[in-house]
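Data card: per-record layout.
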Amino acid sequence: MVKKIFIVIILGFFAVMLLPLAKDFTPFQELSPVAEKYVEDGPEELGSANLVTSVIVTYRGLDTLGEVAVLFIAAAGVGFFLRKEEKGDKTPKRGSSQILQSGTAFLFPLILAFGVYIFLHGHLTPGGGFQGGVVIASGMVLLLLSSASAKINENVLHLVESLSGASYVAIGILGLVLATGFLDNRFLDLGEFGTLLSAGAIPLIYSFIGLKVGAELVGIVNNMQKDQS
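The structure for this 229-residue chain is written out next.
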């Protein structure tokens, strides 16, 4: 009972703190100077039909690099805390249902293809590297759920994660050397606006982000699965 009363008091305290913010909130009637710059000059400067992509990948590319680094640290932390020695005797795992196995056989390649589509078209439509990587990881989770004997090749996983991360940084350096700044996509031709081969290096950047995010999330799931072995 005391615990419940304490929780109610804490919630009430936060409600009192947030109430003035809710009462005095007024929506912005016009864009800030920075946002106005992005909206007006983004499509012409960077050649990306998706303005959000222009901001995330180029104008604020260092923020995205930091987010990828945080995800890498999280994946490394999970791997560290869930690591354990291999045991000789393992209890056989219960097999999954035939429905799940059949559904996975049909859906798994479609999920992977959809994930790749999302990060390849991130400069044209909503989506991008993070979203595509999560979709790919969800396909791997489905595969692990459908088969007790399914194993993730950790060497391949680490190779994909390392190469995609290194390639991402390398593209950023090319933008610094060949264009005007780190992760500047204009060291490649911007192409025709609104087409797949447009927006300079943005499709490459998002592809490497998608592969890196997908590999890191799959690594987390794989470590958790091994921990349950």
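Known properties of this structure: Residues 202-227 form the longest helix (26 residues). Residues 56-81+97-229 form one domain.

See the next section for split statistics.
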